[in-house]
From TrEMBL, chain A:
InterPro entries: 4Fe4S_Fe-S-bd (IPR017896), 4Fe4S_Fe_S_CS (IPR017900), Fe_hydrogenase (IPR009016), Fe_hydrogenase_lsu_C (IPR004108), LdpA_Fe-S-bd (IPR057431), Mono_FeFe_hydrog (IPR027631), RnfB_subfamily (IPR050294)
Taxonomic path: Bacteria, Bacillati, Bacillota, Clostridia, Lachnospirales
PANTHER family registered for this protein in UniProt: DIMETHYLSULFOXIDE REDUCTASE CHAIN B, OXIDOREDUCTASE
A single GO molecular function term of this UniProt record: 4 iron, 4 sulfur cluster binding
Top-rank taxon, per record: Bacteria
Domain 4Fe-4S ferredoxin-type: 124-154, 170-199
Name of this chain's protein: Ferredoxin hydrogenase large subunit
Family matches, as Pfam families: Fe_hyd_lg_C, Fer4, LdpA_Fe-S-bd
Keywords, in A-Z order: 4Fe-4S, Electron transport, Iron, Iron-sulfur, Metal-binding, Transport
Organism for this UniProt entry: Frisingicoccus caecimuris
Coiled-coil annotated spans: none
SUPFAM superfamilies per the UniProt record, alphabetical: 4Fe-4S ferredoxins, Fe-only hydrogenase
TrEMBL record, chain B:
Organism: Frisingicoccus caecimuris
InterPro entries per the UniProt record, alphabetical: Thioredoxin-like_sf (IPR036249)
Name of the protein described by the UniProt record: Thioredoxin-like protein
Domain of life where this protein originates: Bacteria
Amino acid sequence: MKREFMTDINKIKFEVYREVARMAFDGKLKECADEIPYNIIPGNLPHYRCCVYKEREIIRQRVRLAEGHTPLPGGNIKNIVQVLPAACEGCPINRFSVTNNCQMCMAKKCMSACNFGAITFESGRAHIDPKKCKECGRCVEACPYNAIADLMRPCKRACPVDAISYDEEMIVQIDDKKCISCGQCIVGCPFGAISDRTFMVDVIRLMNNGVKVYAMVAPAIEGQFGANVSVGMIREAVKALGFADMFEVSLGADFVSKNEALELEEKVKAGEKMTTSCCPAFVNMIKKHFPQVADKMSTTVSPMQATARLIKAMYPDALCVFIGPCIAKKSEVIDSITMGGADYALTYEELYAMMEAKGVDPADYTGELQQGSKFGKNYSVSGGVTAAVLQTYKERNEDVPVKVCKANGAQECKKALMLLKAGRLPEDFIEGMACVGGCVSGPAMLNKERTFMKDRNAQIAQADDRQIIANVDTYDEYQVHMHRR
Amino acid sequence: MVITICIGSSCHLKGSRSVIQGLQKKIQDNHLTSKIELNGSFCTGECEKGVCVKIDEELFSVSPETVDTFFEDEVLRRVN
């Protein structure tokens, strides 16, 4: 299938994944991985960097990430999100810099706005002493000519939790104690110098070894492979890759809605507050940055874990692999090995690369599938979790007055959690989603264009209007345990 | 104390899931759930030593058969 990539970075990432997947499917990755840089960067002339040798070194580091390793041997093994040192350009670190727009004016408002005496006037324009500058940004606001540029490095600007710093050579470093694996720096770096480790080779090897591997696709899937490719067609394509079967995580989302609504009802009656627990980057933010409110987090498992537990109740030998637009799900898998849920997490990018490696195109298949309700499917959109939880009250004819704080994106999550921590949150319930707009704008989406949302909504409109509780109750015999422990 | 178990494909085929379940049971039996945290990790590249289990930064080679002795010899000693 032909696909337009959002950027050349996405294209290169895809090409590396596809080559690695192809070799892993053929069982010759170990012997042949060295060939990949030459397959992707042929010839002697560079395309993006100073020379082909640097370009090939970047590919080599990307191959290691695709295999699940750190980009360099001996790197920080704790983080999912990793820096490719060869690809990092060490952007200028002096955050505020005076541009040609400086008119050397008489008012010199920038100078009086600076509390640290960092601004002087020499050779026709203002000058900021980087040693004195505390990066407060007052000079930027003060200049009537907008002559001071904020050159914060894009990775640092993208990070909502201040996990990014630089070494003495200006190369990015990620603090694993602060990183919430949201993936914003991966999207934010214009040189593609940050990327994520993958479980793709592990999953392919296990399928090659005859292990029964079940795929679970996240609710952002509709429309990812084009307007005319339905979830049922994707399921058949996924089976052609070697998976035993595919389930919709929107089904697990229905389980979560039913359970979380009961939990919330109890909390509201007791006058307590609660947060959602389905977005793993939001959960990481609570654990790493707001541990004081960790007890307010819903104890219901995530839709991924609910789906995996259901599959394992049906097929005890199943190995369950989540496939979604999310990088933080990989950290959820690693942190929850004792939960009896998902075994691995892949992304849509990785799924697409596996399909291309095997020459599988979902458009060639036919099939129909709907397991989750429309409400479960909309878990991937900001506000969708709340809508589903409130829907279950409607289905039960209960009137539970809940005041909801929709925290849309990591910045809003941070604000809501700060209020909660200070005991000043006016609402009862925080729906936290670290990506602005919800999972549908996740860092590992294949397609985020406006046409995608149109395709997605058109496909979901064709789904039936099954109710959440009735849908969950059809799986009663499996007795899926919905608590984290 | 953090015990990290490799969940890469090689360690999986050597029984990492049974090792996790074995350790979980031992931790519960010994009432140590508040003291010991079990985490997974990506492949550490030492597949021949699998199942790779780390106590803090120290690497051990554990199999489903040796998980009980590993717990008694290495984990308990460090907890107490």
